[in-house]
Write a structure and sequence with these properties.
about 525 residues; elongated; mainly beta; 5-stranded parallel beta barrel
Length: about 525
């Protein structure tokens, strides 16, 4: 395809070769690419066009009404030299020295409208030049002392598009739309190093009206992360009105993470038709505090929906409010529906003693549990649950563990305990002198307990919950309630063919009251 064959709606086309770009992988083509962008901007808009070739570059800055178009066979290749990157300082005030903000990027735009990157070409972040060897005890490669932490950064932009391009080997975060309004990300492939440090795919931060679809994201950190770290901006910014659909997510950490980082609101976000493969955690929704990131109270979060999800994970879902979080932090109106998932660890759904999670629904969930479980948390799951150091532990011995919640509903949830049939999975460092390595994990064995355990829940509905006693010596009932107030249980049963050698439900705790099982009140034991 030639420059003339770019879609006619593109406007005037500015071929970077006409401005001196060589595309031989040796010359620094940054200034030529920037000249093409500037020329398009001066004409009122157009396309900076990269024909096939390998263009070594540092920072290029997009501007109003200008798109960067990468032809098939064109590679925008990140330089390994810091001096080739132009520092950008869009922030002022107390947030300007935020410790995690890096001023250098490969592709950058600030306060631009109608801009973006398109085309079937490739952006290569050259991450291998910024990743050092594994440090014993670390899960990921050690980052170099300097790197462009955010490869592609759009700050306070309007009507932004990122379509069809392939992005590979990011040194850190791959795409960071921050305080943007009107973002379309479609048909993008991200291929990052499996153990690359902080190599998130999409970090949608304090942005509004975002649509992501038809993407393949393979990352060494979160594939998609929604954040509201608006502390660098004047006033409040919500991360809101975000839709993600029809994507495949591969990650050594989270397929989708919603919440941390941030102190500002997050609301009205939907995720649908997702396949999560070889992920540590499928769905992670969390609102802890972290003073080192200026997260003082935790994010106020509501109206988050997941639907139609296939997951192959070590942990299917983790929903968490930190013990030190405080108002206005909230976590309410969360739904996860029509999910088929595998998990090696128990799923956690819980608030804090002072901030219970509210109006949470799990429906039409088919969960297969595999792998060994130790007895560390068998007697009691610690409070607060140690969100920051659970990676190297077996974790919760219940398939689904819920506590400190109001209006919690589980409908048509089935837990299957896998016996036998070894599967290959990825483990993190299990000792301080080990590097990440693969292990073969078999069926559920060891100290697994209940399929569903609920503690300190007010307003619980469990309909058509199906499971059996977990394999192993514990012999706990599939459904175990403690200190639950106002519960309705109906249609719950052993899985077909399971031997009902004991009660399906156990109810206990001095704080328990108003538990109704199939129309009859049940007294705690």
């Amino acid at each position: 395809m030639s420059a003339e064959s770019v879609h006619p709606s593109a406007g005037t086309v500015f071929d970077v070769r006409a401005f001196g770009a060589r595309g031989d992988g040796e010359a620094l083509d940054r200034d030529a690419i920037q000249a093409a962008i500037d020329a398009a901007h001066a004409k009122g808009g157009g396309v900076a066009y990269l024909p096939p070739g390998r263009y070594r570059t540092g920072t290029v800055i997009l501007k109003d009404n200008v798109r960067l178009y990468l032809e098939a066979g064109a590679v925008l290749w990140g330089s390994a030299h810091r001096e080739d990157y132009r520092p950008q300082h869009p922030f002022s005030g107390p947030g300007a020295n935020h410790k995690d903000y890096c001023a250098e990027h490969l592709v950058y735009a600030h306060n631009a409208k109608n801009t973006g990157v398109e085309g079937p070409g490739r952006i290569d972040g050259n991450g291998k030049a910024f990743h050092l060897a594994h440090r014993p005890g670390w899960t990921h490669l050690e980052p170099a002392p300097w790197r462009p932490v955010r490869l592609i950064a759009f700050v306070s932009c309007t009507n932004l598009t990122l379509c069809d391009v392939e992005i590979a080997d990011a040194p850190g975060w791959t795409v960071w739309p921050y305080d943007c309004d009107g973002v379309k990300i479609q048909g993008v492939r991200i291929l990052n190093a499996r153990w690359g440090p902080n190599t998130d795919g999409l970090d949608i931060d304090s942005s509004r009206n975002v649509f992501v679809s038809d993407c393949y994201l393979e990352c060494g950190d979160d594939s998609i992360a929604l954040k509201s770290s608006a502390g660098l901006l004047p006033g409040e910014r919500a991360c809101e009105n975000v839709t993600v659909t029809n994507c495949v997510l591969v990650s050594t950490t989270c397929g989708v993470r919603v919440g941390f980082e941030g102190d500002h609101p997050m609301r009205n976000c939907t995720f649908s038709n997702l396949v999560m493969s070889n992920c540590r955690t499928g769905i992670c929704i969390q609102a802890p505090t972290a003073p080192e990131y200026r997260i003082v109270h935790g994010v106020p979060m509501q109206n988050i929906r997941f639907a139609n999800i296939e997951m192959d994970t070590r942990l299917a879902f983790f929903i968490y409010v930190g013990d030190e979080s405080k108002a206005p932090c909230t976590l309410r109106n969360i739904s996860i529906s029509n999910v088929r998932a595998t998990t090696e660890r128990g799923c956690f759904v819980g608030g804090s003693r002072t901030l219970p999670i509210e109006n949470i629904e799990l429906s039409d969930v088919d969960l297969t549990v595999y792998g060994p479980m130790d007895g560390e948390f068998l007697a009691e799951v610690p409070y607060p649950y140690r969100v920051w150091d659970w990676w190297n532990k077996k974790g919760i011995p219940h398939a689904i563990f819920c506590r400190h919640a109001k209006d919690l509903r589980l409908r048509n949830v089935r837990v299957r305990w896998q016996e036998g049939g070894p599967r290959r999975t990825v483990t993190l460092c299990t000792r301080n002198d080990e590097l990440p390595h693969d292990v073969t994990v078999g069926g559920a064995e060891g100290s697994w307990a209940s399929a569903l355990r609920c503690e300190n829940v007010q307003g619980l509905v469990v309909e058509n919950f199906v499971s059996r006693v977990a394999p192993g010596p514990v012999g706990a009932p599939p459904l175990h309630l403690k200190d639950v107030r106002g519960a309705v249980l109906s249609g719950c049963r052993y899985a077909y063919g399971a031997e009902a050698a004991q009660a399906f439900v156990k109810v206990e705790g001095a704080g328990t009251s108003g538990v109704n099982l199939n129309g009859k009140l049940v007294a705690p034991v």
